Amino acid sequence: MKASEINDCEICPLNNTDYCRGVVSSPGGMPIEPPCTSWNPDDEIDIGDYEADRIAMEEYYYRIYKAEQEAKMQK
After folding, report:
1. Does the reported pTM lie above 0.70?
2. Closest to 14 (Cα-Cα) out of 37, 30, 29, 57
3. Which pLDDT value is given to residue 56?
4. Residue 21 sits in which domain range?
5. Angle at 56 between CA 69 and CA 40, to 5 degrees
6. Phi/psi class of residue 25: alpha, beta or left (left: φ > 0; alpha: ψ in -120 to 50)?
7. Cα separation, 31 vs 57, whole angstroms
8. Which one of 9, 41, 55, 64 is CB 3.0 to 4.6 Å from 4, fit for a cystine?
9. Average pLDDT of 39-66?
10. What are the DSSP calls for 2-69, one per residue?
11. Which among 41, 50, 40 has a CA at the least distance from the CA of 15?
12. In angstroms, rounded to a whole number, what is the distance separating the alpha carbons of residues 4 and 26?
């Protein structure tokens, strides 16, 4: 689905997922904008893309953590 086709949160594939809760506030009261504020009209919006990005980020941080743990054990 193209971003330009999404004109309502109800039809957005990210609606009510961990990736978007709509416009909410941080604990300090700062508004947190939903991801759709940065989309270009021609962007293809697919929750699978967001999930792939999340998994890649988790794997990246795990590799960093593992390297730090190995470095500690070698000391």
Report:
1. no
2. 37
3. 85
4. 3-74
5. 145
6. beta
7. 24
8. 41
9. 87
10. BGGG--SGGG-TTTTBTTB-SSEE-TTS-EE--GGGG--TT-B--HHHHHHHHHHHHHHHHHHHHHHH
11. 50
12. 28
- Residue 22 near residue 50, CB atoms below 8 Å: no
Quick one: tokens of 16?
């009510």
Q: What is the dihedral of CA 6, 39, 43, 12, to 10 degrees?
A: -30
**pLDDT tens digits, 4-48:** 998 888 888 888 888 887 777 777 877 667 778 888 899 888 888
Q: How many domains does the chain have?
A: 1
